[in-house]
Amino acid sequence: MSTVTTTDVDPYQPGSGTPLLQVRDLSVDFRTEDGHVCAVDQVTLAARAGELLAVVGESGCGKSVMAMALSSLLPRNATVTGSVELAGHQLVGASASDLRRVRGSRIAYIFQEPMTSLNPVFTVGRQVAEVLRVHEGMDRRQALDRAAELLDLVGIANPRERLRQYPHQLSGGLRQRVMIAMAVAGNPEVLVADEPTTALDVTVQAGILDVLRDLRDRLGAAVVLITHDLGVVADIADRVLVMYAGRVVERGDVHELFARPRHHYTMGLLGAVPTPRIDEQEERLREIPGLVPTLERPEDRCTFADRCPAADDTCRTHQPPLERAPESNHEVACWHPAGTEGKETR
Amino acid sequence: MSVTDKVSRESTTADPTGAAPPQPGRPRRRRVLHRLRRSPLAMTGLVVLCIAVLAALLAPVLAPYDPNEAHFDAVFQPPGSPGYLLGTDDLGRDILSRVLFGARASLLVGVLSTALAMVVAVPLGLIAGYFSKLDAVVSRLTDLVLAFPFLILAVGLAAIRGASLTNAALAIGIAQIPGIIRVTRSETLRLKSLDYVAAAVAEGASDLWVVGRHILPNSVSVLIVQATVAIPAAILGEAVLSFLGLGIQPPSPSLGTMLSEAQQSINRAPWTAVIPGLAIIVLTLAFNLVGDGLRDALDPRGSRR
Amino acid sequence: MTGEAATTTAVCEVVDLVKHFGPVHAVDGLSLRVDPGEVVALVGESGSGKSTVGRLIVRLLDPTAGTVSLGGIDVGTMSRRALRPHRRTVSIVFQDPASSLDPRMTVGGIVAEPLRLHGVARADRSARVREVLEQVGMRAGVAERFPHELSGGQRQRVSIARALVSEPRLLVADEPTSALDVSVQASVLNLLADLQRDLGFACLFITHDLAAVEYLADRVVVMYLGKVAEVGTREQIFEHPRHPYTQALLSAAPVPDPARQRHRTRVVLSGELPSQIDPPSGCRFHTRCPLAVERCRTEVPALREIGGGSVACHLVDDDGAGPDVRDTAEPV
User: Fold this and answer.
1) Run means of pLDDT, 10 residues per run, chain C, 332 residues
2) Do A84 and A90 form a contact (C-beta atoms < 8 A)?
3) pTM listed for this prediction
């Protein structure tokens, strides 16, 4: 288990570390008053030490549900099946006490809305110290000292003063840094950040991304970053997982995915984001017709087929497996991945 | 080249922004009724309420006897006696008939007073919520009435105008006004901040238009729930007033007067108090269950989650 | 319109606009102008006051000081009644698709409301509603639907239809795509671009998303803490930004291309956004500006017209030459 120190640690090479988090065939079903919803369907992923895995998708793709499912943080009407192994321990179906031990100390979360994640009636110092006292067994003084160190680690100036302040006295960016400090306090092996910068201004976002990058390099933690912002992914991710309607549709190295996307949904997403022009050509933003489906039950077909320009009957009747695309290093779930057979989809 | 050639078309299916899956049909009504049907407590309350209201409305038809008719040969008959399903009281009057007419009077007062309160309070609440300058005035007036003890109000009215059903309804109505003003006001404040209200103002809508076409219709569900809470409170209020002699006067049957008159005979013939008491409980509970059920059904976030 | 036959009467002109909400200085002396048919982007982060400006222009808010003119006519202090006929010339689209449509009205009713308010007869209304719904790419039958039956993207289209139904000369779009998914944003942005080109209305596009600005805007106004930092054409702002804040903003916005993004220099601003209740003295940006000097702390920089745009910065000289914050940053 890595320890948090303020001296530099040799950065891990992405991909060479052992998977700290191994998820296999994770599925999540919800029973609601409107019927069944299959939110996550057989997702497999590995998060390695010192690596930042970005999980990308739009609303309804199941990425947040998947993130919460990792340490069983979902409400009672959710059924989770599959395997989530955290450094060898199985988390699906684990007992409540096992889960409590694991949460915060081995797997920690950072959420989107720092205002509602921090308790408004307690000082910042007390909240960070709480994590330390619960998981590291420190006493009050030790915990506060350590809390100051952690605030410094995440780039907060004047940490001793900040310890005494209340959440409402801090800006959004600072609060998010406090959240990160709390998450890191327990020396987790896996850090799950669910849209950590979506609610922040872009100038503040840059700072938070730097903190995450720093933590990945210095702590050697496995970071799972949930986002819909492709710019953030381009900035900070090592590997990318693209989700659509609960399934993984493409997975691989970030450079390759952006340069040579194979799945038509990924291509649609990349084409939809306005990118600063390099020359004066004006290209129309790419639209994906139709809407994201909500599935009641997993279907044996490609869920993107109805919106895909390259779909044919096979796509509508058989679910494509996630496998390595020809002439590339990443995996895609598509019967007709782009770049093969000369299929043009633009 | 027309705009429409290039613009993409969208079908109407699921919502990509992550909100709840859209429901076809009228705004929420079918969905709300469906949700209401799912709650056994609310449905029980609704059924009981329907029966009670029907029975009370049809009292003249359903009651076996005139409620004021005394049968001196059948005094203090226990329930189940031949001819007197729920027994008789100290004057031999049939309790069933009296309860039916009494419930009728209670419901009448309940509905009347609530209606009166709504007619006065809803506009005031809308004004207070929408016009911030008038808010201070209305709110202070509300506080004033709220500070006034309800019973003192009733006694005062009884002293000035004499005790009667209408005066009971008046007193209770006045007492309910502040509560309804507050609820309407807070709902108005909430709705006022929504973008569609701003859109209407930006289009040039007058205040009357905005309040009448956007705020009031969207407050209806909250007001309905408020009514289902106010009516049982009014029924209880009527019972209290009649019990104290400030409302419906004997010999007119009222659940409150029945309780009052049963005070002397409670040891000898407990049913003379228990039965009207039960009637009050049943009526009040039914309204409250329906009100709770409606409020849950109308809550856009749904019961689970 | 009673505009004089000037060379170009601006569709909308705002001069020294000020809006204080009690102690909060939301807008503190802003001037801008939108000419017929042009798309002006109003860019800023939280606390910049950009949304407030949008609301001031459509008179949802009353200015504390300064003038708001539509088509040459000062409407900033007009009574509600006098304002009514002028409201037709400008309309607004809001950010949140969930709350911008009255849930109890049909789509047809929502889109027809502006027409009703201006006394258009019923038969004419339905025809026009059908026409504008088609223009925003929605099928005919949608007029009978209710907002909760529509997706976020569809609701925004309805909002746009409602805004365009009385043929305004200026459309104020307040973060119209911020609450939508990426692929839906694309279709709404495309729609706005198409409509603007075909129908010719001017557009004030309020946003924090620089990428969308580059896609849509002709001119850009950059705001910081209630004041204008820089104004310029799209090319000027994106290729030669002069104000340090503009430069920082551009450098902070990540480019969705790892090859490019990871070789850019990135400026990370220090400090926090100052409060609007007690804005910094002198240049409001000086507390976070890596290049600030003593003068920036004491003297408010004037918005000077330089080379076709405007900049409010002491470090930019009259020829438009100035430092670039991005040169001080370290590459990633």
Assistant:
1) 56 92 91 93 91 94 93 88 90 94 93 92 91 90 90 94 94 92 90 94 93 92 94 92 92 89 82 83 90 90 88 86 76 49
2) yes
3) 0.86
User: Residue B278 is part of which domain span?
Assistant: 38-59+94-298
Q: Is residue C16 part of a domain?
A: yes
DSSP C103-137: TTS-HHHHHHHHHHHTT--HHHHHHHHHHHHHHTT
Q: What is the CATH number of the domain that holds B235?
A: 1.10.3720.10
User: Which of A75, A291, A292 is nearest residue B305 as measured by Cβ atoms?
Assistant: A75
Contact C186 A273 (CB under 8 A): yes
Q: Is residue C274 domain-resident? A: no
Chain C residue with Cα closest to A288: C183
Name the most confidently modeled range: A313-317, B165-169, B190-194: B190-194
**What is the band of B23 on the pLDDT scale with cuts at 50, 70, 90?**
very low
Q: Are A294 and B9 in contact (CB < 8 Å)?
A: no
Touching C (3+ Cβ pairs <8 A), the chains are A, B
* 8 Å CB contact between B82 and B70: no
Instruction: Tell me the residue type at A335.
Output: W
The shortest C-alpha distance from A183 to chain C (Å) reads 22
Asked if C1 has any chain A CB less than 8 Å from its own CB, the reply is: no
A63: nearest CA in chain B?
A: B18
Residue C122 lies in a domain: no
Count of domains for chain C: 1
CB contact under 8 A, B21 and A292: no
Distance from CA of C216 to the nearest CA of A (A): 10
Of A2 and A265, the structure prediction assigns the larger pLDDT to A265
Nearest to C208 among A58, A202, A276 (CB): A202
pLDDT, mean of residues B100-129: 92
Q: What is the CA radius of gyration of chain B?
A: 25
Q: With respect to residue C21, please indicate whether it lies within any of the assigned structural domains.
A: yes
Helix or strand or coil: residue B142?
A: helix
In a domain, B303, yes or no: no
> How far B7 CA sits from the closest chain A CA (Å)?
10
Q: Which residues of C touch B223 (CB under 8 A)?
A: none
DSSP class of residue B213 equals I
C18 three-state secondary structure: strand
Neighbours of C232 (CB within 10 A): 24
Q: Is residue B223 part of a domain?
A: yes
Candidates A222, A231, A253, A221; CA nearest to A240 is A253
* Number of structural domains found in chain B: 1
Give residue-wise pLDDT tens across range B224-267.
Answer: 889 988 998 898 888 888 888 888 887 788 888 888 888 888 88
Task: Indicate which CATH number applies to the domain containing C205.
Answer: 3.40.50.300
Residue B110 lies in a domain: yes
Q: Tell me which residue has tokens 């019927």.
A: A35
Residues of chain B neighbouring A32 (CB-CB closer than 8 A) = 302, 304-305
Residues in chain B within 8 Å Cβ distance of C134: 4
